[in-house]
Amino acid sequence: MTFDEALPVIFMALMGISMLVYVVSDGYDLGVGMLMPRATPAEKDVMIASIGPFWDANETWLVLGVGILLVAFPKAHGLVLTELYLPVMLMLIGLILRGVAFDFRVKAKAARKPMWDWLFFTGSTLAAATQGWMLGRYISGFGDGWNYPLFAAAIAVALPMAYVLLGATWLIMKTDGELQERAVRWARIAWAPMCGGLLLISMATPWISETVRERWFVLPSIIALSAIPLMTVILLVAVRALLGTPTVRGPLAWLPFTLLIVVFVLGFLGLAYSLYPYVVIDRLTIWQAASSPAALKVILIGVCISLPAIAAYTAFSYRVFRGKASDLRYA
Amino acid sequence: MDALILARMQFAAIITFHILFPVISIALAWVLMFFRWRYLRATQPVDRQAWLAAYRFWTKVFALTFALGVVSGIPMSFQFGTNWPGFMERVGNVAGPLLGYEVLTAFFLEAGFLGIMLFGHGRVSERVHMMATFFVAIGTSLSAFWILALNSWMQTPTGHEIINGEFHVRSWIEVIFNPSFPYRLAHKLLASGLTVAFLLAGLSAWQILKGAAPLSAPKVLRVGLTLAALLIPVQIFVGDLHGLNTLEHQPQKVAAMEGVWETQRGAPLLLFAIPDEASRSNLAAIGIPKLASFILKHDVDAEIRGLNDFPGAHPPVAMVFWSFRVMVGVGMLMLAVSWAGWWWCRRCGWRPERLPRRLLWVVAGMTFSGWVATVAGWYVTEIGRQPFVVFGLVRTADVASTVPAPMIALTLALYVTVYLALLVAYVAVLKYMAEKPEDVIQADALERAQGRAAEALVEGGRS
Known about the structure:
The complex is a heterodimer of chains A (331) and B (463).
Chain A: H1 3-35, H2 41-51, H3 55-72, H4 74-83, H5 85-107, H6 113-139, H7 147-174, H8 177-208, H9 210-216, H10 221-225, H11 227-243, H12 255-275, E1 278-280, E2 284-285, H13 286-289, H14 293-320
Antiparallel strand pairs in A: 1-2
Chain B: H1 3-19, H2 22-41, H3 45-83, H4 85-119, H5 126-155, E1 160-163, E2 166-169, H6 172-176, H7 181-210, H8 216-249, H9 251-258, E3 264-265, E4 269-276, E5 281-288, H10 291-297, E6 303-304, H11 317-347, H12 357-365, H13 369-383, E7 388-390, E8 394-395, H14 396-399, H15 405-435, H16 437-462
Antiparallel strand pairs in B: 1-2, 3-6, 4-5, 7-8
Helix pairs in contact in B: 1-3, 1-15, 2-3, 2-5, 2-7, 3-4, 3-8, 3-15, 4-5, 5-7, 7-8, 7-12, 7-13, 7-15, 8-9, 8-11, 9-11, 11-13, 15-16
């Protein structure tokens, strides 16, 4: 493979990583948003404070991911977004509502606060559900027939549950006291639907797509590949077990969240293996969809300069705001 | 209405709503730096307190504006694919890297450091915090640089070659520094400065009228009026240069701006007219003879090319014609208000209590004048580019998506509803914050107290 041929692969990897970081990072703050109605007003403020410094940058990963799709795979960008026209619009409305509710709720009149809180919850839920729907449609290659929408609908329920679990474990890590106790309860509730959703995706993807079936269920690769689902199961069981012990509220508060991130990474690897080298399954490979190598090289220079910087100050930002989110406030 | 015009309307609605917020945050970031600097430099305790209050209050305005800018910017990266899939297929090699650089260098710089800028005071050192503010300011300005490079290239494309209908870059220097880019960038950055200047002055005048923020409002009013008075003549000069540049590269846009149908010598400057595409003439035209020729070519008898010279390749006239007049009219109003206001305030020794209330009302009335001028100017240049998406080379109709019209209409309605509601909320919250700045700061204190209470609860729970 020459460098020119490798360029689309590099960008596919970059796009995948951006999307993964987006799903994990915005996942926890969308999850926190969906948990909002279950908290008391004071707890709501702490929950918001725990995600306050991060959500802007978290959503920027989506812009980066879709941006790479746009600039590196323009043909796929057009195809995918034409297929997902309506859910994309709804997701954007959801993200807009929650994004602004975030700022308005502290600045508007106190009497309006419940309305903004409600919008924050609704926007988060709408964004998460439409993302699930789009994931379902995308994995199945935008197929027609009765089973495809059903599959997408199931994921539209499962993905928000995964986000809720992620959000709850984030709160376990970032809060204390009664709120933390509640977060543990919320996490326990969300655990089962999330596992169900993951199982469903793993079963349904090969059932729906022959390409995926052929890639997973052949010897000897199935033996090597079984590491992914096995590890996922072990991790999920470990998370559930942790949620049942008191240590999760003490020194191990960070562990469930971390384990869940690993689960997301594993799921991502499985998905990447299923799809590669397609950017739209069975329809468009990454080479067919890519921009000219000359254009990709120009973008790559920028990526090489900025990505380390982004990683560095993201780490810096998380370090500055480490610890429990008790008294964050605008300067 | 067909799908094309609906898609254009939807794109216009989304980009119009978006531009309202960056046009504030670009210049406001630098103004915040200035407030910070005045605070650190002030020797009198009263002054220190005033500049700190100004910084605190306007940081909140910035945070709110920035949040709206971020969320309204997210749809933009999707819009190319949903509305104009052919655009990236044809010119992706040019537009892709420019958009990519916008996202990479600028957006991340802003979003990443914003967290530290907004929440980090007290958690990081003064120097690091100042640096974070600086990076946010640099980021917002860099955003404008890349986006305007691409936008200008779409107006005056250079530095590319076309192979099998696909665009390839020959020289990046030529693509980025295309003929209209320097003028457009300067015009836009000045527009941002003016928008913020009137926002500062207008909101402060409102605070003085309502007796709020007695320490900081007079100081901010002075900063706003001075900034406006300094920038507006520069903007008029740069705008004129930009117009001359447009005349050179896009004569049909200027013909639409001036309502010139037939090529003519000594064209009049139309103050009022109803351009009519059906009869290809102006109805009820009132003009000053020969002035358009004089302004555009600095010669009263110079020839101005008319729209009829460009059959099927000129923009819709009325929208461009009227948007241009709105922009220029608001600009003239800005000149009058900022100079008269500055002079008056100076005569009163910058003591707000001595100012005539009528003047304060006028300044307050101009709070959002920058928005009107910016959007009108944006319409002149973008509608003026039609029917092309890349001027002279790619037609908008050829890159439109195949999404059925009713679906576009539905999402358009959805967007407009949400956006209008948000705009009302934004203005209402600004007004509320301006009238009750101490409430907003108290809310801070309350949040802190609640945080402490939560902590105390934890401590109690543990023991």
